[in-house]
Amino acid sequence: MSYLPNSNVLYSLVRNISKIYRHDFGEIQNLHKSNKSITDFTDKIKKRIESIILEDLSDKYGKNGYKIIFINDHLKSDKIWASEIENCFIVNVLEGETNFMRAIPFFAITIAHKKNNIIQNSIICNPITDDIFIAERGIAATHNNIKMKVSEESASEKNILILEDFLISERIQNTTVIEYLRSSEDIRKFGCQSLEMCMIADGIINAYIGYDKNENVISAALLVLRESGGVKNIINSMEQNSKNYFIVSNQKIYDNLLYS
Fold this sequence. Notes:
Layout: H1 5-31, H2 38-61, E1 67-71, E2 88-95, H3 97-101, E3 108-115, E4 118-126, E5 131-136, E6 140-143, E7 146-147, E8 160-163, H4 168-171, H5 175-183, E9 186-188, H6 193-201, E10 207-211, H7 219-227, E11 231-235, E12 245-249, H8 251-259
Parallel strand pairs: 1-2, 8-9, 8-10
Antiparallel strand pairs: 2-3, 3-4, 4-5, 5-6, 6-7, 10-12, 11-12
Helix pairs in contact: 1-2, 6-7
């Protein structure tokens, strides 16, 4: 399958970075058997990857006024966007950092390309499993060159559901959603939001419920989801001063929650 030039640039970049992660993932496994600091080792890897990405994208796009914005799993999302940046690359060099540090092969590199304040294309890569998800606005989303489509399943008792935090089931104040959670027999959490959303886009998982946040932080995964026919909707709390949540799924599931 052919891709846009920008997607080809990002594809080559994450393929090169994946080689580094695969090597260092083996080192992480060895560190668990020693007294050396896994945190320091991980921080050094992230800085090295950030440097590679910054140099590569700045060299190719810096003359066009593009900024490179690095985010991470621990950053307060609302603090990043004090002023909107119309043309940029939004990069998380290690989403699912805790998984990486525990030698669990479920983490990702994510890059979203924003032009004129719209996400045009994105890429998400699990360097260990070599799963690569590419989305191009108005064209398609693919998983290892195969077009993706969300599941059409809507019956809650057959759904596989992911929660960002298992405490959501206790904190959420929306009675319809509570009933949906109670009727869902298979609820999971994998620890890497973008890859979890890609699983929904690929029809493997039916829905994901998480805390509402700035969309820039999950922009790469959202484009994959939307180009696969999925939707992101806000679940408003029934009580004042309670947190709002979001759900990504097919439209049928959300309509059932909204109108049941």
